[in-house]
Amino acid sequence: MGAIFGLGHYAPRGRRPWLSRSRGAVPARVDLAFERIIDEQRSVFYRDRHEVRDRFDGRLALRSIPAAAVAAWSAWGAGEVERGLHDVLGAEAYRAADPNDAERFLMDALAARAAGMGDDQMNELLRQTSLLVMDEQWAAHLGRVRFVQRHGNVTDESLRPAAVLERLFAWCRLVTVEHTLGYALNVEP
């Protein structure tokens, strides 16, 4: 048949050569439970991102970001509130902060920053930094997720990919709040 169109030298030499080449290749196994968890996390992320993009309320953010950061730090264990305050405020301001009243201290710092910048500019800064940090952390989270997917065949139930993915997503959300708070307090508009 190839000779008819002047393609005799391109004619296949054996029966179905495309089959003989692909016999050694086996498609990668897809863990559907793993993909479902990623899809759930993706839907939560995009819901949160659309909320920030379309219906951002700066006054609510000024109250909720410090509360969320302190709650997340407290949940992660002893000493995390102090570490979080140090990371967000810097060494000098951290010394003046009381870890037992961290939420109020952060709210006061954000209120002082908003008073210095103006409410509209602070709202836009919070909105833009929230979106930027969410995108950065989601990309980093997907990288960590793919690493777990490649290397996640373990026998210990607490280290199974589902448990690890839930902890990674919680950590991703904590870092998002922490970095947003840090940018809101320290970045120049």
From TrEMBL:
Q: Which SUPFAM superfamilies match?
A: Helical scaffold and wing domains of SecA
Which InterPro entries does the UniProt record give? SecA_Wing/Scaffold_sf
Name this polypeptide is given: Uncharacterized protein
Q: Which source organism? A: Asanoa ishikariensis
State the organism's lineage: Bacteria, Bacillati, Actinomycetota, Actinomycetes, Micromonosporales
